[in-house]
Amino acid sequence: MLLLRRCLSLTRFGPLNTQRSQVAPTVCAAHLWSSSSSSDDQRSNQRTHGPSWRHGLAGLLAGTGAVLVYGLHKHKAEQADTNRLEAIEPTSSHPIFSQEEVTKHRSLEDGVWVTYKGGVYDITEFVAMHPGGNKILLAAGGPLEPFWALYAVHNQEHVLEILSEYKVGELSAEDLKKQQAVKSSDPYSSDPERHPVLRINSLKPFNAEPPAEILTDNYITPSALFFKRNHLPVPQVDPDSYRLCVEGLPGGALTLSLEDLKTKFPKHTITATLQCAGNRRAEMNKVKLVKGLNWGIAAISNASWSGAKLRDVLLAAGYEPDVAKWARHVQFEGLDKDVTGTTYGSSIPINKAVSEEGDVLLAYEMNGEALPADHGFPVRVVVPGTVGARNVKWLGKIVVSGEESNSHWQQNDYKGFSPGTDWDTVDFKSAPAVQELPIQSAITAPADGAMVDRSEEEVTVQGYAWSGGGREVVRVDVSVDLGKTWQVAQLRTSDKGQEREPSPPPGRAWAWKLWEVTVPIPPGAKELEIICKAVDNSYNVQPDTVAPIWNLRGVLSNAWHRVTVKVREDEDEE
Amino acid sequence: MLLLRRCLSLTRFGPLNTQRSQVAPTVCAAHLWSSSSSSDDQRSNQRTHGPSWRHGLAGLLAGTGAVLVYGLHKHKAEQADTNRLEAIEPTSSHPIFSQEEVTKHRSLEDGVWVTYKGGVYDITEFVAMHPGGNKILLAAGGPLEPFWALYAVHNQEHVLEILSEYKVGELSAEDLKKQQAVKSSDPYSSDPERHPVLRINSLKPFNAEPPAEILTDNYITPSALFFKRNHLPVPQVDPDSYRLCVEGLPGGALTLSLEDLKTKFPKHTITATLQCAGNRRAEMNKVKLVKGLNWGIAAISNASWSGAKLRDVLLAAGYEPDVAKWARHVQFEGLDKDVTGTTYGSSIPINKAVSEEGDVLLAYEMNGEALPADHGFPVRVVVPGTVGARNVKWLGKIVVSGEESNSHWQQNDYKGFSPGTDWDTVDFKSAPAVQELPIQSAITAPADGAMVDRSEEEVTVQGYAWSGGGREVVRVDVSVDLGKTWQVAQLRTSDKGQEREPSPPPGRAWAWKLWEVTVPIPPGAKELEIICKAVDNSYNVQPDTVAPIWNLRGVLSNAWHRVTVKVREDEDEE
Question: What is the ipTM of this complex?
């Protein structure tokens, strides 16, 4: 409880201080790094790579999620013939190449060359093995350093070992000197301070979840404890010069300041749970390793969000019934971007965006305060009932379109596949982008592996349950006999002792339910497996087991949740 | 194929002939039996029972679904002490009672007496055991005959045996004569002719499904083969005097003729799959017997429906935004009714009813022709994406209300419960009425128990998949190794060789998908279990097994579907 109070106070007084700095873009088209040194990086990068191929590959550029796969490769690297490690040693036998020569190798046809700390590497053969896919081609013909600064997962010894296998030469001293003159700073250096209790899945970009044992202590998750899921560095945006651009509607673009959003549109507040598509991925990893951050059960949190309704803003920007004849999607672009200038992006179906009942917000407040930097300051989209990935943070642009966002995260990530589909056979076009999420629940207490006392005779089980698409959770069943019999848990939609929130209208149950049930400790049991499963008001249920829903990206992990606790026998009756 | 052609021709020329007869009600309040003899029954019944208690019990009155439970009771009856059967034998030792005396026993306090063929029975103790619940009280103080005519499930020997145990006397000869003077006709005598291929689950009321092996031969199910789910006798409605009443909106009631519906509102056509909540109940019965018709996998069918949009009719009747402040539900009343005059009824949430995208129709055509009698002639509601029970047939009245329908079928039926909930502990108020149904799929070929030839080396598996709420089926996985590995099936939304229908807008995928996949026959296998499971575009999946979703009413049975086929070895290589 002391811990929780500390978290709450951090929410209140902590991160906001770090938000107001630097100059933000004032026009839609210029989403620059707010740190000038990073800007330098980006520009040099643009010069090196040129805009023509950059554009073509923009859609391939991915965030992270590669930590785990590097684990796999590390394994392979360790198993590889150690003789080959000799190739790491710098030898004078390597030929010298000019930057101009290196730059000629930017495709699978011409070969894919990169430089790293003065070495020249022909990684053509490695491209097919790259855990991040084709996006490695973005670095072709130039230095790896700016990319590895962005995707810090590369800064590991075994990655260097893999690279060393492909060394073909040295960069000329003159060109190396030029490269080094370009200041390479850490694009994550201005990321905000985070609460130390968070369990970090990846530091750069920052991805972390609260400890499961405190997740359901509050119906509303304190902002500092809310799970963080960043794909890129946190952009620093000046709220005074911030502009949101709305495009694609008759009458041209509409540009809105933060003040416009706050004063020209009614302020709406909703309580909505956000969940990462990768929540509970760790359970899929136990079946077979997948590509992605190893989330536990706490990549889900619940907050109150306030802002303008996207519907109202679209109407102000010229949305009218005729638009529905051609428009199908509303695309969002974040101000967070990678070294090539590609921003995070995604889209949602237009009917969700314009519906009165869709409740999509352009939120500028979280839990009654300005959005924290990690959650999209100054403005983010909140698409209740929809996977976290569509709730774009640091929102820079809205585009009404006939097409989905062509971003990597919409087209080639955040999709579900059959267990039999692997990276060799996957066709990302064959599956729809995840929007609404399926029914979910998990046990937050007792923790897996915890001890319970036989003398207590029973154990109180607690957890959360939520479903996408505004479908209300109507029941949670709990079993302590491997699913033979089930007890129905008590559900609540507020903190204990607080007044119950009124039931949401049908189809607009955006917030999770917390639940609790007391179950007997069966006589003789040394261990107790506790299982939970939830039901929503479309009577969707969770599948029994993980393996049949396993998928190569490890998303949509919503099988029955199971924890095993140990029963401590009474050794002393005194 | 010949069979199918026969079915189609029956659809075209068959049942319509039987629809145009008798006089239908011309005002909302007077939904009379269209058969005058039935009307007599009803009136005599009203006289006997009086209106005061009838009204109070109306909500308890149920349809059928009791066939199976009678099976259970039959079992009990057979196991009962056979000495008690002596009580069946008419003996002169029984006292004689007047009807007036019998009529005094109409409650648990005063005792519950009924008469049957001149016998007087005190069934007070049986009330709690009645499979149909308290509705048995409707018969209290009077003759059972009209109720048993309605619920033909009672016409079985073991039911008579149960009754005989409660005999307390004989009805006076004079009163028996009076009773017999009331012509007791079969309220089902004017039910339409049905196709003989249908597999009948209950004759009165008529409930039947097509053979699973022909269910997916057509993308559009021929009307004659479309599963039939009636709760009561089919009313005969004269289309010329038919009136639909719309109530509850500012400005008073609106009354519409069939001609009004056809000419005053735009005609819309949708293809929508309807599924009974009890589809695949037979699989639940294998886990533990439930109350309800023993549906196989074919209580689901797909048709094209044409009619006026409910939204348009509600707008014409005075629906405007202010109504949304208090209205929550739209109630439907059918013209089908029981002996007490209680009509079939249900309701849907108002947002589904008034939404442009809800596509709720007041349908007067099915598959391009007038609705067949069994499917609601002349007008039924089609609530796409919603459980069959809300798609009220023979629609007589629409009421916009703050409350759900208080009908038995809305309040005390068609709800889901935890496997641990039994008839002693069930609280129907604790669960929401089923509206949207969860993801579903089943294998229609090969049939369970079929033979496949080893020499073929592979087997083609076919089936259907559908999800409620307009959620589109995006994938069907099929396994022949108990779920260890899965193959992805080919989906289609039209008949083979026909042009593919365009993808529906998000949230409006009302029709099923048919699917097919060819799987290898594993070497050495003598039997092959084939499993299918589907995924919708909210990535909802089917649960692995039946037992954890078992519920006392046997609804919402959507676990993986499994069929076992036998592999015939090649005995002769010639």
Answer: 0.77
